[in-house]
Amino acid sequence: MDAMPEVSRESGFAGESGAVKIQERLQKRHQARAEDAERKKEAKESKSVAEEQGEYFSSSFNTERASIEELLSGCSGADRAATARLLEEATAKTQQLQKFLNDSTLFLTQYELRKAQAALQKLQSSLAEAREEALPRKKFAFRARAKATDKAPAEDAPAPDAAAPAVSGGAQVDGAAESEQCRFSNMDGVCLTKTAEEIQKRDVLLTHLTNCKVRLFGSPSTLHLKHIDNCEILCGPVSSSVFIDHCRNSTLAIPCQQLRTHHTTDTKVYLHVTSRAIIEDCHGVSFAPFSWSYPTLDKDFSLSGLDQARNNWSEVDDFNWLAAGTHSPNWSVIPEADRRTNWEP
Asked: How many Å apart are CA 215 and CA 134, to the nearest integer?
């Protein structure tokens, strides 16, 4: 008879304990649901912000691009002085648009980024074509230094231009006209140099160079490398973009806002880039931090507007490799032990 109350008390304790556990489970479930709802809310808000940023970028980018295209169309039929002013304004606006794109890469989708970069590249090509058409450059000339035993020119023959300083391999290159100071083309086995005074924020084009060593001082506006084979090219800070196409077996050292590389193989790039490097149809491209130095490098960085503290040299997007979470086999990082630090001839 006395055991019955004990059973009742134990049953009561067990019931109370079970109710507490149920209550705890309900509270945890409610908390989990609340946290999940908060996460969904934050994700929705984040998506909304990203969409708003993307819409603002697209609208601003297209407006500015149309403004530049209008400037370029105004070059047709204008006199040389007016054309030069329009091209100068278009160049400045294009550089600003490049910077706007670089500053927006953090919130743009890959599709939006690629679309904008393609549009900007097309715009830059149109600018170069308009400049070439409106302000045509003189033909580039090459001439070997006359030997001491050569006969003196006839008195009625025109005097030759002053010969340029000697370059490696004994070849000589005449000084080009001022409008041609930013181009080297169709050369083999020579050392080539452009001074900061020659470059003066201009576009630089290097094309069809083989076995050459190139030093570009100062701050170019853009740099175009095309059909480069077994060359060493060192360049000062480029204020906007570097475009590389059909380069092989070469070593490049370049600071820039944006790098786009196409059809390039077995090439080492010592890079300072403030956005993200892009490769396409490339193989065997390797990267390391920019390490070339010369006395006026800091001054040229300031002139270019590049941020020396911001270098995304190892952030490379391969447009031919879409496997998320897997490193592209088309590019690699140069091991520290193999990186070049001495650039003296």
From this structure: 29
Q: What is the DSSP string of 292-313?
A: ---TTHHHHHHHHT--TT---T
CA separation, residue 213 to residues 42, 181, 220 (Å) = 54, 17, 18
Is 222 found in the same domain as 119?
Answer: no
What would the two tokens of residue 9 be? 């008390």
Residues 177-191: tens digit of each pLDDT: 334 448 899 999 999
174 and 310 both lie in a single domain: yes
Q: Tell whether 210 and 119 lie within a shared domain.
A: no
Rounded percentage of the chain residues whose pLDDT exceeds 70: 78
Check: CB of residue 229 under 8 Å from CB of residue 207: no
Residue-wise pLDDT tens digits, 39-55: 776 666 555 555 677 78
Are 230 and 129 in a shared domain?
no
Which residues span the domain enclosing 234? 170-338
Taken in order 22, 27, 30, 33, the sign of the CA dihedral is negative
In a domain, 321, yes or no: yes
Question: Given CA atoms 314, 202, 308, 337 in this order, what sign does their dihedral have?
Answer: positive
The maximal CA–CA distance of the chain, rounded, in angstroms, is 144
Residue 164 belongs to a domain: no
